[in-house]
Write a structure and sequence with these properties.
Elements: H1 2-5, H2 21-41, H3 47-52, H4 71-78, H5 105-115
């Protein structure tokens, strides 16, 4: 079905005679090259390709807005040079969940080291 919609290179053989790690690594590299070639040769990836990869469809990114900025400059600068495959709506490291069960050990360690240096092991 993909060959009907987009240009695709020859896909590596899916029949692997043995499970030798070297052979499996060659198959993985072949599949990686196949996917990279499909993405590079096709400007827009159709829904069927994203479904094939089991990738959720990404909404278009909102344009940045600024007072007194030329709209045509904004339009050109806000375009991506590639089609996003995965989009985080919230940075999990900068904005962790408020109800996170795991404490932030880095921050706790820094605070402990600054405010309780006498409790550090020697």
């Amino acid at each position: 079905q993909l060959k009907k919609c987009i240009r695709t290179p020859e896909i590596p053989s899916k029949h692997v005679r043995n499970w030798v790690p070297k052979v499996l690594e060659q198959r993985r590299q072949g599949l990686e090259l196949y996917l990279q070639t499909v993405i590079l040769e096709n400007e827009e990836l159709p829904k069927i390709f994203l479904d094939f990869l089991n990738v959720r469809h990404v909404p278009t990114l909102p344009k940045a807005e600024s007072c007194g900025t030329d709209i045509s400059v904004l339009h050109l600068s806000s375009k991506l040079s590639h089609q996003p495959v995965l989009l985080f709506l919230r940075d999990p490291y900068v904005l962790p969940k408020a109800n996170d069960d795991f404490p932030n050990v880095v921050i706790e360690g820094i605070l402990h080291g600054i405010f309780y240096p006498h409790l550090l092991p020697r």
